[in-house]
Design goal:
The protein is an alpha+beta fold. Helix content is 18%, strand content 34%. The chain is globular.
Length: 188
C-alpha cells in the first residue's frame, strides 16, 4: 500500500533516562543474530551477515522500562504517525530491540515483501548515541540521512528502500516497530 506524501516523520522522542533504563534492562536478555528474508528461501528468514549484521531481542513485558516504551508508542508516537499520514493502522507489531556492534550494519532493503505485506510504516527509535556511524539512510523519494541521537524516533513508509550504515566505533542500540494494515483482498 502506498503512503501519500514522502520523506520521513520525526516523532516526539524519548527521554534519555528511559533510554538508559531500557538499555540496562535489556543487557541480560537472550539476544540472537538478526535474520533477513531471502526471496530464494521464501518459507524462512535466514542468517546472512553479508546483508545484516546485528543482534535482536523481542519484546517482553518482564522489562518495566520496555513496557513504558510500549505505552509511549501507543500514546505518543502512533498519534504522531496518524496525524502526519492521516492513516489509522489496524495494529502495531511487537517491539524488536536491535544491537549493532562495531562493524554492524543492514544493507539497503525494504520492510515489505512476501510474508510482510501487512507492514505499512516503519518506526525506528534510538536508545543511545555513544557510537560512531550507524546513520539511517532512506532512499525514497530522495536520499535522506538520519543521524541517530538518544531518544530520536523517526517513521517512514515500510516500502521505502533504507539501510543502516556500518558502526565504526561503539554499539548502537535501537528499536523498531511496524504499523500494520491488513492486506486488501483481490476479488476476481
Amino acid at each position: 500500500m502506498a503512503i501519500p506524501g514522502g520523506g520521513f516523520l520525526e516523532c516526539r522522542g524519548l527521554n534519555a533516562q528511559l533510554c538508559a533504563e531500557i538499555i540496562a534492562e535489556l543487557e541480560a536478555g537472550d539476544w540472537e543474530a538478526a535474520r533477513v528474508f531471502r526471496p530464494d528461501q521464501p518459507t524462512q528468514n535466514v542468517l546472512d551477515q553479508t546483508a545484516r549484521n546485528c543482534l535482536r531481542l523481542g519484546f517482553s513485558s518482564d522489562f518495566s522500562a520496555a513496557k513504558e516504551l510500549w505505552d509511549l508508542i501507543g500514546t505518543t508516537i502512533i498519534p504522531d504517525v496518524v496525524e502526519h499520514w492521516r492513516i489509522m493502522p489496524d495494529s502495531v507489531s511487537p517491539i524488536e530491540f536491535l544491537k549493532y556492534p562495531e562493524g554492524g550494519f543492514f544493507s539497503p532493503h525494504r520492510d515489505v515483501g512476501p510474508g510482510f505485506q501487512d507492514r505499512l510504516l516503519t518506526i525506528v527509535g534510538y536508545l543511545n548515541a555513544d557510537f560512531l556511524g550507524g546513520e539511517l539512510e532512506i532512499h525514497h523519494p530522495v536520499r535522506e540521512v538520519i543521524v541517530p541521537r538518544t531518544g530520536r524516533v523517526v517513521a517512514f513508509p515500510s516500502d521505502y528502500v533504507h539501510a543502516s550504515r556500518p558502526i565504526a566505533r561503539g554499539t548502537k542500540r535501537a528499536f523498531v516497530v511496524w504499523c500494520l494494515k491488513k492486506p486488501v483482498q483481490d476479488w476476481l
